Amino acid sequence: MAETTTKPKSIPIAAKETGPGPGRYALPATVGYQKHDFTKTMRPAYSFGVRLENPMFKAGFSPGPGYFINSSISRYGKDGTPSYTILGRQKDLNAFKTPAPGTYSPEKVHPQGERHAPAYSMGSRTRFRKSDTVPAPNSYSLPTMLGSRIATQRAAASYSMTGRAKTGSFAEDLAKTPGPCRYNPANPNLCKKKQPAYSMLGRSYMPGGRRRKIEIFHRQS
Asked: When you count CB atoms within 10 A of the terminal residue's CB, does the N or C end of the chain come out lower?
């Protein structure tokens, strides 16, 4: 049988076509009202007015379309719902003079409803204090009234206390004997009958039977 070969279909490429492009056609426009296609329905067209030459109208006194409208303003007036804000932190922290909780002393406040005892205060020094010529109490140099050195006054009896003497005092050690801890007591076994002495021998075998049960019971308890 003879083999038949099929050629692949060629894809048309617009660049290889010799026909005119889309820009070669002069179709009437369907937008606007000038040279509109008469076979199509023309929609209403609107235009913007030109700016006036009067300088009064050059400055924009009216708000643009992006002006802010407060949400609390409605057609009935301002909304009466309460609103709250948070105050920002002050730059100068020294402006806050509020005392700390430990500054207050409520225990010093007099209980309400109880009678107050009379309180007195001392007035401040007046401006005439500098011109006062009365001497102060420490300006006088009066002799002391204690002791027997006053020539014009009768002195009362005065007594003195002597120091402790080292010889003849109650703390003097006349015998110069040693204390009880200075003696080394002798072993009584050297001069008397020696008493019996006992020692405990170490265990060299594993206990069994009833003795082992008793030891296990004592360890667990």
From this structure: N
